[in-house]
Design brief:
Blueprint lengths: L1 E9 L3 H17 L5 E5 L2 E6 L4 H11 L24 H11 L7 H19 L3 E2 L2 E2 L4 H11 L2 H10 L1 E2 L4 E2 L9 E2 L2 E2 H11 L17 H13 L7 E2 L12 E5 L2 E3 L2 E2 L1 H11 L3 H6 L3 H5 L9 E2 L15 E9 L4 E2 H10 L3 E2 L2 E2 L3 H9 L9 E11 L2 E11 L6 H5 L4 H8 L7 H20 L2 H19 L2 H7 L7 E2 H8 L4 H10 L12 H6 L2 H5 L2 E4 L2 E4 L14 H17 L9 E3 L14 H8 L5 H11 L2 E2 L4 H5 L8 H8 L2 H11 L1 E3 L12 E4 L3 H8 L3 H14 L16 H9 L7 H11 L4 H4 L2 H12 L1
């Protein structure tokens, strides 16, 4: 097998990519049936039994038979049979082929004759007027063409239009039925064939509208191999090559003219026809009821994410994801690959750029494909669309786990995006941000990016909660069903911020059987305090008036958590009558029943300002969307804490926190005595109501003095007497007091460790042993 490198057939721009497809298709159909092709870096490599650079040039220059591209349904297609011609140049080249006797144009003449007959029948049926096709007559005329065109012409027809039961759709790659802006591609195809000297016997001298044979061969070699110095002809490549479009500031001296290599355009249109069988095969109930992009593989609705110039207000027609493959495929295999067009996201065909990039990250595309070039078809030159390359995306050989989780967001996100033009501005902005973050996760992965997805999702829910009419119209419920057991391992980035956020987000109470009480509905967990939701008998419902503690994400996090402490205390007042009789130090039942334990080392970092408050708030807002029930034992083992005894001592060195922590945690270890030097018992305790107010208003020293007296009364011989010199901010202290201290009986070990470090030698003698036990537990 001989190998030929086609350096002129490049993956970018789109014209170069389609030129490559056109070459392998024509070589396989007309020259060497055993030819194959692959992408090597940025260009196409073609292999065949007798292929060489010379053979390829000779074939296209002498023996190539152009695929008929006729569009009698377009006014500029050259088939106007009455009235003033819309496009005299198109009429002229069509007439030239009609009257030609060249053997290579035989299929073209048959297609033109069939088109003439279809136009004649359309005129008799009243589908045309003054030589122009009526709007309601276009679909019937295309049906007439589909039934009468020769087989050679069906590739063009099927690539440019798609017939549905009662309508027609236009695949994106060839514009509107072969018409892009003001250019009829079928007419321009014939004009470029004429320029290259393929519509009549080629003389050695140039004539009007065409170049001489040597120049044509030089341009052909440049189109295939990118060799030699050639002069392009004044012409347009339509949407396929933005760099050759011309216009303002397109050259070194200002405005430039549109220039093109006629062979590149001819071979590019031939390559676009590779998508023909695809346009016919991809039709289904889904594609007929969905967007027009569904009729062609690798073509989806645009997503304004993943490229620098992305703008939600841009006029974009869609996206084409051009597949690249590194292993040799025959032209039949390439056509099958493209006609299959597999781009699966979940159980559905990819419908948007976001769906497509998620498909590439989750084994949702054909395994033969190694990479995609993403082209944005957008209106960027007046009223003319351009195919702009906006990125390369490698196909993963294994599922990216972070991207795989994103399918759980599609149900709620789909409802939220329904009738997108009627979505409130704040929700629309949040949904666009959500798309961008999901795109980043699918492209690059990473726990931090997945955290951002959940944070933006929480922001979207907050925005939706502020419009009752919007929620009612879409029957939009609060976000639910996201399991912490599945999400936390992928979200965990081993940061102190994540471990503290998990400890806060998992805080919840034991629910009573049946319908939740009023207090449980709004305050039974940190989630119901900070999200705009309430607990109901059927799950989550929207809270009237928003969250009980508002503005998470809009105010400093520790100020919000300071208010959470106040809200929790207020709700606890209603439960005082139900305090267990075993509570031997009466107060407010403040502590949550459940929650992931946080190590003292992380609490030490929190108290001493070694935590990024903004990042902690963003992570927390996302984690509040998760369901934590029945997942504590599994998740707790995933949150490994680096052994840092110094950070633990930082927590133990804050006397106000040490004396208040047992009361806010709800359990006080029994103090050691001579009779019982190592007790393993505890008593129930609660903070007094006035302590909560003191902590929240910056007077924690007053609450600490009161707590210290109670501790001494329980046998704890504290050294500290002064609590005024603490440098801990009140809001950080309030946040620390919300947290659980370990798993199971680990709560008692860590609290005992704290108290031992603030006691006299008589009670401190086992502190080192407690420290060692705590370290072993974390290990």
């Amino acid at each position: 097998m001989n190998t030929v490198h086609l350096h002129g057939c490049r993956a970018e721009p789109l014209l170069g990519y389609l030129t490559g497809l056109g070459v392998i298709r024509l070589v396989g159909e007309q020259l060497d049936p055993d030819a194959s092709a692959r992408w090597d870096g940025d260009h196409l490599v073609i292999s065949g039994t007798y292929l060489s650079e010379t053979n390829l040039v000779d074939f296209f220059a002498e023996d190539y038979k152009p695929t008929p591209a006729v569009a009698p349904w377009n006014s500029g297609g050259g088939f106007q049979d009455a009235g003033k011609p819309t496009s005299p140049s198109a009429q002229r080249v069509v007439e030239m082929v009609r009257n030609s006797d060249l053997a290579r144009l035989g299929p073209y003449r048959e297609a033109i004759a069939a088109a003439d007959e279809a136009r004649h029948r359309a005129r008799r049926l009243g589908l045309t007027k003054d030589g122009k096709v009526l709007k309601q007559g276009k679909a019937p005329l295309i049906e007439l063409c589909r039934g009468s065109f020769p087989d050679e012409a069906l590739a063009w027809l099927d690539a440019s239009v798609v017939l549905l039961d009662d309508d027609i759709r236009y695949p994106l790659i060839l514009g509107t039925g072969g018409n892009v802006g003001r250019m009829d591609l079928s007419a321009n195809f014939l004009e470029q064939l004429e320029t290259a000297g393929l519509l009549e016997d080629s003389p050695n001298q140039p004539m009007r509208g065409r170049i001489d044979a040597p120049t044509s061969r030089a341009l052909l070699r440049h189109a295939l191999f990118r060799v030699g110095e050639v002069r392009f002809v004044p012409s347009s490549t339509s949407q396929f090559d933005p760099g050759a479009k011309g216009g303002p500031n397109s050259s070194a001296v200002g405005d430039g003219k549109a220039l093109a290599n006629p062979w590149s355009f001819v071979l590019g249109i031939e390559g676009a026809m590779v998508f023909a069988s695809a346009a016919a095969r991809r039709l289904s109930v889904e594609s007929q009821t969905g967007g027009s992009k569904a009729s062609m593989p690798f073509t989806v609705d645009a997503t304004a994410s993943g490229y620098g110039s992305a703008s939600t207000g841009e006029n974009v027609k869609g996206e084409l994801w051009a597949p690249l493959w590194r292993n040799d495929l025959s032209h039949r295999e390439i056509q099958h690959l493209i006609s299959e067009g597999r781009s699966q996201w979940g159980r559905s065909q990819a419908r948007s750029g976001l769906d497509f990039v998620r498909a590439t990250a989750t084994l949702g595309v054909d395994r033969s494909i190694d990479e995609f070039v993403r082209y944005l078809i957008g209106v960027r030159d007046g009223q003319s669309p351009l195919a702009v390359p906006v990125g390369r995306f490698k196909v993963r050989d294994r599922v990216r786990p972070e991207a795989d989780l994103l399918r759980q967001l599609d149900g709620w996100g789909g409802k939220a995006r329904f009738k997108f033009n009627r979505v409130p501005a704040a929700v629309r902005s949040a949904l666009n941000s959500l798309e961008r973050e999901q795109f980043a996760v699918s492209t690059f992965g990473g726990a931090a990016r997945l955290q951002t997805v959940l944070a933006v999702l929480a922001e979207t829910e907050q925005a939706a909660s502020r419009s009752a009419k919007y929620r009612q119209d879409r029957r939009l419920e609060p976000i639910s069903g996201l399991s912490a057991r599945e999400w936390v391992p992928k979200l965990n980035d081993d940061s102190v911020e994540f471990r503290i956020a998990a400890g806060l987000a998992s805080l919840s109470d034991r629910m009573s059987a049946g319908r939740p009480t009023a207090a449980e509905a709004v305050g039974g967990s940190l989630m119901t305090l900070l999200r705009p939701v309430v607990l109901t008998s059927f799950g989550l419902g929207w809270a009237k008036g928003g969250p009980r503690v508002p503005n998470l994400g809009r105010r400093p996090l520790f100020d919000v958590l300071n208010d959470v402490v106040g809200a929790r205390a207020a709700l606890a007042c209603s439960a005082r009558s139900g305090i267990d009789a075993s509570d031997q130090v009466a107060g407010l039942p403040f502590a949550f029943d459940y929650g992931l334990g946080v190590d003292l080392a992380d609490i030490g970092r929190l108290l001493h300002g070694q935590v990024d408050e903004e990042r902690l708030g963003a992570i927390l807002s996302g984690l509040l969307l998760l369901q934590w029930k029945d997942s504590f034992s599994v998740i707790g083992h995933d949150l490994a804490v680096p052994d840092d005894p110094v950070a633990r001592l930082h927590a133990a060195s804050e006397p106000a926190y040490v004396v208040l922590a047992p009361f806010f945690a709800g359990r006080l270890p029994v103090a050691p005595t001579d009779a019982e030097p190592r007790p393993n018992r505890s008593i129930a305790v609660h903070p007094r109501p006035e302590w909560v107010g003191a902590v929240r208003t910056g007077h924690a020293h007053a609450a600490a003095r009161s707590a210290a007296r109670l501790l001494r009364g329980r046998g704890w011989r504290l050294i500290v007497d002064s609590f005024e010199r603490s440098n801990v901010a009140r809001s950080r202290l309030a946040a620390a007091l919300l947290l659980h201290l370990g798993r199971g009986d680990g709560d008692l070990r860590q609290i005992r460790f704290l108290l031992n470090h603030q006691c006299t030698v008589g009670t401190r003698w086992i502190a080192s042993r407690e420290s060692q036990e705590s370290s072993n537990e974390q290990t």
